[in-house]
């Protein structure tokens, strides 16, 4: 017995693009397996007009819709809840590059384009699309915009929000907003674009975007520095900002514990130092407009001065692309090495950069007081004030012990962040996982404004219920 | 006979800060004298709490409020309409710098701070606050954010929107949103900040902001190039972007007519060329992280290659700060020279950069066909696709002739902009002057979303009625 909505959607999209039962399962769990959701069906429209038609049908039947891109989110914002009454709408078939305009330095892509394919299309046109993050081989640009993705190049180029000039959005009633403008300046009315960006699919379905492109760097140079304290890291960042200005494209902080875990876990990986006993390391990357000799000379000048000032204890400058890749590989292996170590409690927080040293020192100490033996594996994008503040079980304990610590431990961390003017979600969003945290830390007036906006734009509450809004 | 609201406001703020009659007049007309408004009184609160108390009183009496900063807007968005039933709320007394955090590269200022004083406070702390525009000596940062101001440094640093990390806002009911966060990454909920920025006081009253700071350039170098065609300007921009990357901080296009008008109007001003017969000129500025010799060498290398490629016909590189200032002074004198020439029809438009050459050529030609003899004085921020497309009366005609042409002529210009995917307001906003244009060019779905948001956040319609929304 097939219901009317399913029949209508099959007629619209073809039976091959309306999935149920086993075929639907891969779409219903997030990759971290935090949430096992249900849906009456998975719809896979291939065009914006079909997305609009799906939304009109769902609105007519009063059926909620969860939009999904690459399903690589960290907070289960792209999978439905357990109710099973809704439609999972996959944007994966909207995967065309619609236009590249090198004179305007813009690219227009559909929501289902994999991030890496956008980077590649830009590079083939002699341009850089700088958004870069771990999941770039499978995440999709619609999801990147829906969650305002961050990553490693934010210091120079900003978040996904800052890289987007225009959007095409299907609203809850199926109407299409044609906002694919490639304009650097447009003060004609409210900023609808930034309202949809980061709204995690709760206000509309992003179907395409016009994005900024940049010149390709003439040379990239990378170095790894060892530091004696977290306070030195803040001073070193200030020196790099002043010395490199906008050529500073990476400033990745890693605790010594993170780096030691990587080389212990993956024996083929080596750090460029005889010992790894410094408490902190920083990976510095610059992207130069001139050439490699100029980039290396700049890097040597600024890092040399930092050595002389005692802000860094040691430094290794990559002399080849292979050496640079090896340094970045150390950084990118932290998450996998942590997973090998067992479960860990992850906190994706941001702080004013000036508050980071105090936060790390006082929170590390408070954890040892209240949860003796837990192990900190802190790393992150220091230039953005963004820390991945990870806490692993004590050596002698098991995952269940850590699990039992979770509510109290995470509240301790988040209370400290909140007390210093920080955010409990720097780059990953709220999803289904952090709605209770949002209710705990957001001001009542902010929650009231958010609910009023949701009610104004999606009065039926059809778009991604259970996500973002507590 | 004094009404209850006036009495309450005098008790709250002191009689000296509640102005009526003659004292109120300076606040009720915009500086371009486009609108002569009326108000029952002018309130000058000195703190955010007082702004909130004013709003609570006005809400209780159902009295509309027009917020005003430096009253330097181009579209009369900061003055009331003719009704005379409302309150003009001046933010000028909220003029403190609340904090500078050089480790976080942020400054927190109140809405009534004059832009130039924010620039100076940043510079005193060894940092750059890059927002820069003609009115910087009297415009206020609250108005800059309320209108998402642009200016000459957008190419590198973005509009006011991109320079703002956090806001403090008083809502229509007097509640205060404490959103002064100094975070580069914060994905905890809808982007309320960007909704208030550019809303021209119709959604809330910005009382303070946390803004981004940047390193001071080690050297600034400036050049003036003569070009043979508008197509060359687009090619020259692409070369400068590729050659200078983020050190390119200025790329100001000026027609030969603009430059000739300046040197004819102000005999003490000289262009660095023997003749001024090129159709287009571009002022190029770079801001270097190293030193002046490096900056000059880079400028010479890239501009030399442009000369060789025939993209520019001639170039003069300023060899001193005085010479650079003289080049910028030419650019900044265009508006004043135009005012000396008589009335002119101004259009503040933006386009994809790739569409600018066609727009200029085809629109100039269409104007001559429909309005023979009118004179174009086009200049603007080409790197942002932002043109100030000014049209002056035919030599032999008077201002009244031009005035009679206005509706048809402006519609011709704006239709052309709209047809090429551009915006009829690049950096000046909508205010009271352009609401009919907004109704003409905005998609119905955009107007519907804007009205729904307005209704959700200011259900009583008390904030700046008559501005922005048609």
From TrEMBL, chains A, B:
The keyword Flavoprotein applies. The keyword Flavoprotein applies. It holds the Pfam family FAD-oxidase_C. Keywords: FAD, Flavoprotein. Residues 35-216 form the FAD-binding PCMH-type domain. Belongs to the FAD-binding oxidoreductase/transferase type 4 family. This is FAD-binding oxidoreductase. It comes from Roseomonas alba.
């Amino acid at each position: 017995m097939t219901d009317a909505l399913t029949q209508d959607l099959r007629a619209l999209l073809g039976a091959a693009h309306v999935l149920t039962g086993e075929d639907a399962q891969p779409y219903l769990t997030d990759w971290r397996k935090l949430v096992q959701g249900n849906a009456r069906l998975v719809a896979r429209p291939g065009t914006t007009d079909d997305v609009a038609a799906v939304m009109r049908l769902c609105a007519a039947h009063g059926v909620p819709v969860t939009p999904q891109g690459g399903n690589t989110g960290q907070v289960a914002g792209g999978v439905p809840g357990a109710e099973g009454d809704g439609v999972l709408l996959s944007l994966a078939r909207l995967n065309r590059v619609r236009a590249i305009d090198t004179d305007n330095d813009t690219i227009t892509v559909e929501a289902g384009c994999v991030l890496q394919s956008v980077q590649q299309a830009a590079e083939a046109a002699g341009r850089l699309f700088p958004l870069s993050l771990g999941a770039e081989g499978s995440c999709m640009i619609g999801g990147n915009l829906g969650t305002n993705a961050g990553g490693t190049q934010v210091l120079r180029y900003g978040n996904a929000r800052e890289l987007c000039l225009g959007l095409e959005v299907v609203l809850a009633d199926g109407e299409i907003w044609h906002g694919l403008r490639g304009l650097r300046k447009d003060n004609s009315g409210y900023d609808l674009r930034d309202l949809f960006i980061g709204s995690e699919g709760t206000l509309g379905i992003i179907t395409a975007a016009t994005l900024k492109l940049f010149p390709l760097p003439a040379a990239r140079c990378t170095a790894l520095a060892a530091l004696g304290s977290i306070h030195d890291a803040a001073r070193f960042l200030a020196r790099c900002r002043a010395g490199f200005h906008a050529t500073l494209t990476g400033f990745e902080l890693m605790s010594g514990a993170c780096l030691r875990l990587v080389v212990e876990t993956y024996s083929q990986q080596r750090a460029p130092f005889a010992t790894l006993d410094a408490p902190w390391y920083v990976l510095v990357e610059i992207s130069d407009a001139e050439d490699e000799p100029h980039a290396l000379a700049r890097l040597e000048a600024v890092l040399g001065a930092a050595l002389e000032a005692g802000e860094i204890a040691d430094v290794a400058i990559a002399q080849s692309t292979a050496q640079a890749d090896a340094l970045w590989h150390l950084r990118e292996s932290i998450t996998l090495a942590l997973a090998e170590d067992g479960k860990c409690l992850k906190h994706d927080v941001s702080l004013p950069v000036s508050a980071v040293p105090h936060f790390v020192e006082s929170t590390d100490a408070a954890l040892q007081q209240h949860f003796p033996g837990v192990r900190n594996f802190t790393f992150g994008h220091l230039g953005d004030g963004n820390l991945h503040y990870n806490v692993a079980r004590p050596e002698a304990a098991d995952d269940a012990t850590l699990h039992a610590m979770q509510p109290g431990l995470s509240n301790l961390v988040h209370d400290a962040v909140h007390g210093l003017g920080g955010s409990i979600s720097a780059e990953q969003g709220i999803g289904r996982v952090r709605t209770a945290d949002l209710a705990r830390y957001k001001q009542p007036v902010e929650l009231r404004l958010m609910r009023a906006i949701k009610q104004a734009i999606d009065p039926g509450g059809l778009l991604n219920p259970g996500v973002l809004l507590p």
